[in-house]
Amino acid sequence: MLELIQPNHPNTIAFKAVGRIEDADYKTVLALAVDRMVAEQGKARLVFEIGPEFDGFTPHAAFDDAILGLEHWRDFEKIALVTDHAWIAGAVRLFAPLMPAQVKLFALPQRDDALAWAAN
User: pTM for the complete prediction?
Assistant: First the structure.
């Protein structure tokens, strides 16, 4: 599931991946929050934490992740990924230069830094 992280600033949405992420997590939590922020502010700033509690994505959730990214390709202003998972960080490093948003990686102990960076 996706747990809401209270950001330091109202222009930022922040979630933590816990357990197995499913289709409904994207459709009823993340996509709605991104849609609302884009409608209200024109752009979205996202902090996404993937820590040791994360147990993977279902195939449909992985598809939803790709669709969300495509639908909001130019709607993200900043994306902060907070993780110590090397494979996830590696994938982000590979694809971040292709994204129109600013993307930055943070280690798990740097969550507060990620929230501050995304908000400013």
Answer: 0.91
